[in-house]
Design a protein that fits this description.
single chain; 67 residues; alpha+beta; two-stranded antiparallel ribbon; 22% helix; elongated
Length: 67
């Protein structure tokens, strides 16, 4: 889940796994695989960065300490 800011200033948390496209139209339009669309204040670059950070966190392999 990633936090974003709607155009009206309200916070929204989006399931990053459902994001199909992110476009600049000139506002940032996030389209989900469900068909829902969300206009946000965050830049395209910020949305992409948050999705990549989220995916990195999900795929971290814990270190096993030997002892």
């Amino acid at each position: 889940m990633i936090p974003l800011l709607r155009l009206d200033g309200t916070d929204v948390v989006v399931n990053a796994e459902l994001i199909a496209t992110v476009e600049k139209t000139p506002d940032t339009l996030v389209t989900l695989s469900t068909g829902h669309r969300i206009l946000v204040k965050d830049s395209v670059e910020d949305v992409v960065k948050r999705v990549l950070d989220y995916r990195r966190q999900c795929h971290v392999v814990p270190k096993i300490e030997e002892g």
